[in-house]
Amino acid sequence: MSRPDTRPPKPTAAELDLLRVIWRQGPSTAREAHLALQVERPEVQPATVLRLLQVMHGKGLVVRDESKRSHVYAAAHARDALQTNLLDELIQKVFSGSGKALVMAALEGHVSEGERDEIRRLLEETEVPPADQGGTGHA
């Protein structure tokens, strides 16, 4: 018997834009989400945002509170979980499963010097010392 897939569904680019709004400002009505999204995409129409939220609800990307006159939509998945799922898919499809290839591609022109320094610090902080391979039991 196979386990049901618990990974978040893959959003389209437009759905991801709307999820970013909801993650940033929290649970929102379609009107509130439209107003926030208009800052980035002035051409988007209120009816488009409502329809998109309805589709996203059907896909399981958002949950809907129907207890008020205007439904309130909230992200069904944490940002980290969705990003991890999308990153895993990107690594598999584009980099043949190699995380190293992804990092090397990102470092070639997509990372500022300040970001490189931050990455170096993070690597130093999270570096795991090699296991005691000699079995000498130094304590």
What's this, in brief?
This protein has 139 residues and is mainly alpha-helical.
Write down the overall mean pLDDT: 86
Low-confidence stretches: 135-139
Tally of alpha and pi helices? 6
Strands side by side in the biggest sheet:
1-3-2
The total of beta strands comes to 3
* Helix share, percent: 55-70%
Classification by helices and strands? mainly alpha
Biggest β-sheet description:
3 strands, antiparallel
Secondary-structure element series: HEHHEEHHH
The coarse silhouette is elongated
Tell me the strand percentage band. Answer: 5-15%
Distance between the termini: 48 Å
Spatial extent as radius of gyration: 21 Å
Model description:
The protein is mainly alpha-helical. Helix content is 55%, strand content 7%. A three-stranded antiparallel β-sheet has the order 1-3-2. Helix 2 packs across helix 3. The longest helix is centred in the middle third of the chain and has 16 residues.
Descriptive keywords:
139 residues; 6 helices; 3 strands; 3-stranded antiparallel sheet; disordered C terminus
Topology:
Elements: H1 13-25, E1 28-29, H2 30-40, H3 46-59, E2 62-65, E3 72-75, H4 79-94, H5 99-107, H6 113-126
Antiparallel strand pairs: 1-3, 2-3
